[in-house]
Amino acid sequence: MTVFDNYDLSARNTFRMKVRCARFVEYDSAEELEALDFGALPQPVLAMGGGSNLLFTGDFPGTVLHGRIGGIRVAAETPDGGVLVEAGAGVVFDDLCAWAAARGLWGLENLSLIPGEVGAAAVQNIGAYGVEFKDVAVEVRCLEVATCARRTFRVEECAYGYRESLFKRPEVKGRYIVLSVLLRLSRAATPRLDYGNIRAALGTDAPAGPADVREAVIRIRNAKLPDPAEKGSAGSFFKNPVIPQEHFARIEALTRAELGPEATVPHYDAGGMVKVPAAWMIERLGFKGLKAGNAAVWEKQPLVLVNDTGAAAPEEILALERRIIDAVQEKYGIELHPEVEHI
User: Is 236 a catalytic site residue?
Assistant: First the structure.
């Protein structure tokens, strides 16, 4: 275990905000975490993964915990080709995707190259290209902070939704720290190719294995998303809004009045509701590529806000976020909500 006071978090968040925390604690095992005197730590306590879905809005007055619990192992196999895999919370999520693809295990390939670690993926219910963490999750194994007792949540107990989970609810947030997850992958081919441009990137309806899909997803992501190592960001900044059918009809009518009767609005069915890409609205409003001081909207994907110069202050990111939310609300009557957690 390593402990630092007045710790610089600049390299610990992918937005590269120049902020500090009162104390930073990094642990290597569940046993080290259990041995911590949580009450004696500077408060509040924040358990953080790779810092890839966070926007620090200023210095953090408490303790940041980061786990380095690693390890990926096959826990069991089922007669139908199912493979149960346990991964430590500190495993880089894309390393887990690569591990599975290299072994011909289907289920994670569409989630390739999402930044962050396994524990945070379980909290956030990360998703991309028609797949979410919940689709492969079986169990999330945690430590309860108040009692230092271990607790296992079955996937149906995790209340997973679009970028939501039990662990993000106000009454539960901060009560549990993820130690590891149990996933169900498959040796049987189960490609999901209908979302985004995966099928076109593959050039086939029958990929030989999950590694082919993984490589296609990586090509697509690299073509439109910034490398956090080169341009600070937290990936997709806003959630895609889900609206009633009648609200979507008004947006469609507005768009056709502006662009002509053949104009279409991209959308996806969401169980009787309609999911509208936030990126489409942001781009229609002229924000794509917009620079605002040291902050900017990424030139290739308007859903991404970036620390354009590397010197952006949290206030600059927040101001750009507010401009976009207000503009979308005024034009389309939709209030965008950030996917990125503000700390």
Answer: yes
Annotated active-site residue 10? The verdict is: no
Which tokens belong to 163?
């970028």
Catalytic residue among 12, 163, 184, 284: 163
Residue of 117, 139, 321, 339 marked catalytic: 339
- Provide CATH code, domain 2-67: 3.30.43.10
Domain boundaries, the chain: 2-67, 72-224, 232-342
Q: How many residues does the chain have?
A: 343
- Cβ pair 185, 100 in contact under 8 A: yes
Domain 232-342 classification at class level: alpha beta
User: Quick check: helix, strand or coil at residue 277?
Assistant: coil
Whole-model pTM over 0.85:
yes
| 152 in Cβ contact with 142 (< 8 Å) | yes
Per-residue pLDDT of the chain (343 residues; tens, 9 = 90+): 999 999 999 999 999 999 999 999 999 999 999 999 999 999 999 999 999 899 999 999 999 999 999 999 999 999 999 999 999 999 999 999 999 999 999 999 999 999 999 999 999 999 999 999 999 999 999 999 999 999 999 999 999 998 899 999 999 999 999 999 999 999 999 999 887 689 888 888 788 899 999 999 999 999 888 988 889 999 899 999 999 999 999 999 999 999 999 999 999 898 899 999 999 999 999 999 999 999 999 999 999 999 999 999 999 999 999 999 999 999 999 999 999 999 9
Give the architecture-level CATH label for domain 72-224: 2-Layer Sandwich (3.30)
**Tokens at 335, concatenated:** 């209030």
Residue 163 appears among annotated catalytic residues: yes
